[in-house]
Amino acid sequence: MPTPTSPAVRLSDVRLEYSGRTILRGLDLAVPRGSMTAVLGPSGSGKSTLLAAITGELVPAQGTVEVFGQPVPRGARALLEMRKRLGVLLQGNGLLTDLTVAENVALPLRAHLRLAEPELRARVAAKLDAVGLGAAADLFPRELSGGMARRAALARAIALDPPLLLCDEPLTGLDPIASGVVMALLRQLNQSLGLTCIVVSHHVRETLPVCDQAVVVANGTLVFEGAPDVLQASQDPLLRQFLDGAAHGPIAFDDVTGQRAA
């Protein structure tokens, strides 16, 4: 039976595969409720695969994944109900280009709730205000800067007031200022709403300062779980290679593709 103090997400001895190929193995992880957790690691290390297991998109080959004390369901209807409690900020934003910002934010509300039009508009306005885009409601995605588009996608991700927010590389394509704005906004929402937030990223400098917990994925498994300051102080050769951006070390890369070697 789940309790108010049980983790928002728990993985126990999880192995994740694609087409019979093991991507991640031996995953044991607990994400505290109300926390902000950074999942870090080099490109191709399996960070997004980890998110796919939490959303139920990928069924583990071994082990269990629990969200708010319940195993991630496999039936379509139960999975849909669980996903109503998840907000997902996609790497590419996923905004529909022929809809305005307000119409994009309204999509999950129209799909899952029966609201009178005035209440729906009020909720959309509140979410846009929360991300600082109240004046951009009638703009189209093509009229937004990269940082504004990311914030619009965030407003849509929290439209249903989910207790868990999953962010897949939220800083991709953003300049340092926009990156700082997005991470500060995520932290603000985490603290003001009690939102549990998992941020998948390879942007160490921008992500670690606003997180409570850090996880590092490399070489097919979790190689670190703990406080951000402990991670930054670590002298472990693998962690130092990632944190310092060193070309040579325990994390192997393919010389041709530049991706992490299997």
From TrEMBL:
SUPFAM superfamilies: P-loop containing nucleoside triphosphate hydrolases (SSF52540). Residues 9-244 form the ABC transporter domain. InterPro entries: AAA+_ATPase, ABC_transporter-like_ATP-bd, ABC_transporter-like_CS, P-loop_NTPase. The keyword Iron does not apply. It holds the Pfam family ABC_tran. Keywords: ATP-binding, Nucleotide-binding, Transport. GO terms for molecular function: ATP binding; ATP hydrolysis activity. It comes from the Bacteria. This is Phospholipid/cholesterol/gamma-HCH transport system ATP-binding protein. It comes from Thermomonas haemolytica.
